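Input/output pair, single chain:
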Amino acid sequence: MYNKSIYDQMTRAEKEVANVLKKLGIFWFYEQPVFVWDENKRPRVWAPDF
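Output:
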């Protein structure tokens, strides 16, 4: 049985960033949704890569 890895969903550039953060010992979340307000004061959910 194959266990999916978060790395399977990443682009090559995202994998490079993830590896640098890992080497630096920086804990990260991948595409963790964040609630924000846009410039017109409307609520939005944004999912940055890191």
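The chain is about 25% helix and 15% strand. The first helix runs from residue 12 to 23.
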